[in-house]
Automatic annotation (TrEMBL):
GO CC field: cytosolic large ribosomal subunit
Sequence similarity: Belongs to the universal ribosomal protein uL6 family.
GO molecular function list: rRNA binding; structural constituent of ribosome
Native source organism of the sequence: Candidatus Staskawiczbacteria bacterium RIFCSPHIGHO2_01_FULL_36_16
InterPro entries reported in the protein's UniProt record: Ribosomal_uL6-like, Ribosomal_uL6-like_a/b-dom_sf, Ribosomal_uL6_a/b-dom, Ribosomal_uL6_bac-type
Protein name: Large ribosomal subunit protein uL6
NCBIfam families, A to Z: L6_bact
């Protein structure tokens, strides 16, 4: 039995749920999200709560895995439609900077040409000094774009220069040691 799948999802204030046979649509103040529903999963809305259930009483291994997965996906959709999600990244290094020009995030990271990342439809960029904030209603898209930004210049272990998530600890290495000659 899925411990996560058993938990009902509280519908946050101001979030509207539309349910059809093959799709669930969640809309709120931060945006609108849709997700296709697998045939082995059944979704019910009762008393301001969403219940995710397996369609058949006899569990298949795949059905048990999908039960918890769809509960987590729908919970994230409801959370994103009401509050939204954000990831913060820090830039560290001399001469490294980021700017937002129209719908493009421009990163100057010591390469010959600046790295340009186009803004997807439901994602917002905000740059304050050396902190880049990626925000949006879809948790998966926010995490994916933040990972792409971080990948453009990973933190190197000797001086700690590069892009990291805020609060991420980087394991530092010691440089080469000079041996004194006799």
């Amino acid at each position: 039995m899925s411990r996560i799948g058993k938990k009902p999802i509280e519908i946050p204030q101001g979030v509207k749920i539309e349910l059809s046979d093959k799709e669930i649509k969640v809309s709120g103040s931060k945006g609108e999200l849709t997700e296709k529903i697998h045939p082995e999963i059944k979704i019910e809305v009762k008393d301001g709560k969403i219940f995710v259930l397996p369609k058949n009483k006899e569990f298949t291994k795949k059905g048990r895995g999908l039960w918890g997965l769809y509960r987590a996906l729908i919970f994230n959709m409801a959370e994103g439609a009401s509050k939204g999600f954000e990831k913060k990244l820090e830039i560290e290094g001399v001469g490294f900077k980021a700017t937002v020009e129209e719908d493009v995030l421009v990163l100057n990271l010591g390469f010959v040409n600046p790295v340009k990342i186009n803004k997807p439809k439901d994602i917002n960029f905000l740059v304050e000094k050396n902190v880049i904030t990626v925000s949006g209603s879809d948790k998966q898209k926010v995490g994916e774009i933040a990972a792409i930004i971080r990948k453009s210049k990973k933190v190197e272990p000797y001086k700690g220069k590069g892009i990291r998530y805020q609060g991420e600890k980087v394991r530092r290495k010691e440089g080469k040691k000079v041996v004194a000659s006799k």
